[in-house]
Design a protein that fits this description.
The complex is a heterodimer of chains A (306) and B (327). Chain A has 306 residues and is mainly α. Chain A is built from 13 helices and no strands. Chain B starts with 5 loop residues before the first strand and ends with a helix. In chain B, helix 4 crosses helix 5 and helix 5 packs parallel to helix 6.
């Protein structure tokens, strides 16, 4: 209870209460998350169930169009006759799951390496930081394209379809760990020289305990800030990969693969299959980035806006 | 040398810091000599003060004694046992007997831990067998003994002033019932009005718990008030070591003399003090001979060539070739 009271009294909550943009973007983000994870409850159709899909319903325009609409399909249908609204809800869920899990993996790898690197220093530090340099010199997309292509070629498209989420999480997670490692290392270097760390050493606490109990909690605010950017980035990476046909398969579409699948029909007049999921993606990323911007301003007192 | 009363003895201690990294293919970088051949003995029950200007190596000495830095050469023995080359496990019992109070009260408490978490941690670590209620009782006892309100326990460090935080730091050091406490300029970051209060807390703790202090400061009036013996350091070397009264009655080393003449007098009798010339030489290139010869008003040719050893003169130890004449 003490922690909750402390949180409610904090500067963060106070500033949130006074910032319209933050409130709006947080509400939007929350709406996306709830809608996505409640998809099986609120979606009118199950896009994964072939029994509910009728090819005769394909390419029905959204409800507000003049002709050929069907009251069952608010946003129309895609080329396979799936309800676009339901597919978007399920797709957003996949995109968010991949985004969150990939970032969790990045945090796990990056924070551990950054913490050890910064606290232990010396050769271990040099080794990990050169490793980070190498990792950063390969673009995320390149690593992801190679990894998924190799995986697809080795195990076939069938198996890939089943484990696509896992592969995407691994690829995006591993490709971006240096962001965390570098940020955490920089904070650890600053914290390590403070006297409370010396005090813990004088007590005789073992290294790992000083790192986890004393240093790590004091490096959390930059982690929080880059996490917002990284979640947005991970979702974008996933969408890009899916758009290139290397991400989620068409029968389990994420936002990216949905945009991609509609792209073929955009010139035949069925613009909604691409445009509506794109708008959802843009709104989702925008809400996360606005939230991240606000968080960065609040948590960094040296940076103030006019 | 070491009699039964000696608690801590430092012999020929040197500490050097590399300031440029070694290149990949070997070859050393530049070196700063923070401590040069310091030998000291601290006796049980005394408040040993270490004074000197900024950068003279007094904090490094304290950190080396506490094991926060490893000495480049020399030995540190506690109660007759050498501790500087011990591994972490073997050193643990000594960590409990030796504790430290830090200079900056704003950095020495973990901002994410409540006061009770900060205070409980050393006790739970060193005495894992204690029950929760025993730990809590101990925390309350120690908090009260240093004049802290026990309602502070559930709060975080940022809610307290510098003096309050320093008293919490003292409480943390006292949690494990140490017999030897190193205080690294514990009052220099505080307001003058708070300094006396914190100093009194430390003196009370000394009387109640039979503590031995290594007290580091650059404030000579504090030394006169607090210390039983004083060592004056300059550029990593001990210049003069004496009982507080002996030293303040008549310093022998020219550096000590200049230092004491710089204390402002209340009665205005000595408005002019001897001004020291020049700057402290760089610790990267120590002067040959006596480290003080460049600024010493009595320097002769021998001072530039021979390093003066710490020797007994007139009831104290002085590292000066002309200690007999400077009195």
């Amino acid at each position: 209870m003490n922690r909750i009271r402390l949180f409610m009294d904090s500067d963060l909550v106070f500033r949130f209460g006074r910032d319209r943009v933050a409130q709006f973007s947080f509400a939007l983000f929350l709406a996306f998350v709830i809608a996505a994870f409640a998809a099986p409850l609120i979606a009118p159709f199950d896009p994964y169930d072939p029994m509910q899909i009728d090819l005769m319903d394909s390419e029905i325009p959204p409800l507000w169009q003049d002709a050929n609409t069907d009251p069952r399909f608010l946003f129309g249908t895609d080329a396979q006759g799936r309800d676009l609204l339901s597919t978007i809800l399920y797709g957003t869920r996949i995109s968010l799951i991949i985004g969150f899990c990939a970032v969790a993996l990045q945090i796990l790898i990056g924070v551990s390496i950054g913490l050890i690197s910064g606290y232990v220093g010396g050769r271990i530090d040099s080794f990990f930081m050169r490793l980070a340099d190498i990792q950063l010199s390969l673009s995320t997309l390149m690593v992801a394209i190679i990894a998924s292509a190799v995986f697809k070629a080795t195990f076939g498209t069938e198996i890939y379809g089943n484990v696509a989420i896992l592969v995407l999480v691994l690829v995006i997670g591993i490709a971006e760990w240096p962001q965390y490692a570098r940020t955490v290392r920089a904070s650890v270097l600053a914290e390590r020289s403070k006297e409370y760390v010396d005090a813990a050493r004088v007590i005789g606490l073992p290294r790992w305990r000083i790192m986890i109990r004393h240093v790590l909690p004091n490096t959390l605010s930059p982690i929080l800030v880059i996490s917002t950017v990284q979640i947005a980035n991970a979702i974008i990476s996933e969408a890009a990969l899916s758009f290139l046909g290397l991400g989620m398969p068409v029968n389990k579409p994420s936002l990216g693969s949905l945009i991609s699948s509609g792209f073929e029909f955009i010139f035949s007049g069925s613009w909604w299959i691409t445009v509506i999921p794109s708008l959802v993606l843009v709104a989702l990323i925008l809400s996360i980035n606005l939230l991240g911007d606000w968080l960065r301003d609040v948590l960094n007192p040296r940076l103030y806006k006019d | 040398m070491s009699d039964s009363q000696t608690l801590l003895s430092i012999a020929n201690l040197r500490k050097q810091f590399r300031i440029t990294a070694d290149s990949w293919c070997g070859g050393g970088g530049q070196v700063v000599s923070a401590i040069n051949d310091v030998s000291l003995e601290i006796r049980k029950g005394e408040s040993f003060c270490l004074v000197g200007e900024s950068g003279c190596g007094k904090s490094t000495l304290a950190r080396t004694v506490m094991g926060l830095e490893t000495p480049t050469s020399g030995t540190i023995a506690y109660g007759g046992t050498r501790i500087d080359d011990m591994n972490d496990g073997a050193r643990l019992p000594y960590r409990r007997r030796m504790q430290m109070i830090f200079q900056n009260p704003y950095a020495s408490l973990n901002p994410r831990m409540t006061i009770s978490q900060t205070l409980e941690e050393p006790l739970r670590f060193h005495q894992p067998g204690l029950s929760d209620s025993q730990v809590r009782d101990k925390v309350v006892t120690v908090m009260e003994s240093v004049g802290n309100n026990t309602s502070w326990l559930s709060r975080f460090p940022h809610e307290f002033s510098g003096g309050q935080r320093q008293r919490i730091s003292i409480a943390r050091a006292l949690m494990v019932d140490p017999e030897f406490v190193v205080a690294d300029e514990p009052i220099s970051a505080l307001d003058v009005s708070i300094q006396a209060q914190v100093l009194n807390v430390m003196m009370d703790a000394r009387n109640e718990r039979d503590l031995t202090y290594l007290f580091i400061t650059h404030d000579l009036s504090v030394v006169e008030h607090f210390g039983t013996r004083v060592a004056v350091m300059y550029l990593g070397v001990v210049c003069e070591l004496a009982d507080t009264r002996t030293l303040f009655a008549g310093p022998r080393h020219p550096y000590t003399q200049l230092l004491l003449s710089a204390i402002p007098k209340m009665d205005g009798s000595e408005m002019t003090h001897d001004r020291m010339q020049g700057e402290v030489p760089s610790a990267m290139q120590l002067p040959s001979g006596c480290v003080f010869h460049g600024r010493c008003p009595h320097a002769k040719a021998v001072c530039k060539t021979d390093i003066p050893a710490l020797r007994d003169v007139a009831g104290r130890q002085v590292a000066c070739h002309f200690a007999e004449e400077t009195g």
